[in-house]
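Risk register update: the risk of archive-format incompatibility is retired. Evidence:
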Amino acid sequence: MQKQTQLTKFFSKKTKEQQQSPVRTKLDDYQMFFCTPPTQEIQSKIENQNAKKKCSNNLDTWIRKSSLQQKKWPFLPKNLMYQIYKFLQLRECATCSQVCKFWMICYNDIYFSYSFFREFETSRFNEKELATVLKRSSKQLKHIKKVGDIIKGQKISSFLEKTELRTMLSDNSQQQGSLLELFKLEPKKQYTSVFLTDKDLNSICKESYKSLQYIQLISCQFMTGKGFEVIGKCSQLSLINIQSNCNLKDQNVQVILEQVQELKTLMLLKCDGLTNQIFEIIGNYCKKLERLDIGCNPQLDLIECSPLKRIESLQSLSIKENVVNNEALEMITTNLYKLHSLNLEGCYEINAYSLMQIQKLNLQRVNLKKIQFKEEDIYNFVLTAKSIKLLLVNNNLLSSRIEKIIHSRQ
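Archived output:
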């Protein structure tokens, strides 16, 4: 009891300076040493040091759990890593993955990332890379699976050599019916066809009927006219481009246009199955159309194009390599007086008198390539048609005085 009393008195009389740091104190009477407890500041330092050691020991586990995207440097967030990888080829991404474990994890994850493959172009891959993507990504990424279904039955090397395919995911790609925003399929070489069946197109439109805005199908010779009608299910389409298909008929186009009310660009080139009735169909259903391209259809008689005047929003018309005489051109200038752009490339029956008719329109862009004129006729045309800002003619007709006039208007 006597020893405890003395110890209690000793600690109660200690000064504040002694309480701030650990001090060894000697009790003379009992020849004993006591160490005062450390302050809260020193304890926190010791705890921080222990925490750092523990963190360094568990770094590998920390990486594997992918919690790095919530941390600061030296690790970038995964989403930012995906954006960096987008600017690189897949083989270059594989090289970058050797930098560290985290970059390797990000590289492996891109195969399951909608963000990385939002814009998918087969031209970016070689045969081995495309095979790897189709194998690893098609199970989780729907649009990659669709690409795999189109290529199925073909050699990948042959597909890459002949065909270019491009898709773009919509912003709401995870929602039902909103997979793609863009679908584009075309051959890499002229006078060749690409392999796309009615079933493939139906599958694509079924998954994207709410979101698809742009569709381009060139030289899809295996498609039937009835197969094209499924495009009409995609009511949000603003651009339809169908080229080089003899199976497409007027009634097929009508089924599509009856359902697509927001269409702004319609391109139907080299479709031999179309007749003059197509003008009536377009005039009735395309009230918001701004651009129409029906070039390379010599079977069409443009004298019958008067129904197009019902489209008040029409600003651009392309009838290149069609049969266009002065009577047909007069019909165009009379009924389509709101045009800003006119493409007459390869319309060989156009002459100097035709230029006088074109002057009636308030055109800003005119294409007269592959047509024989005199330089004087072009000069007088440009001088009179003061609204023209872009003129495309054969090189031998583009003299310096014509160029000066055009440049002064830009």
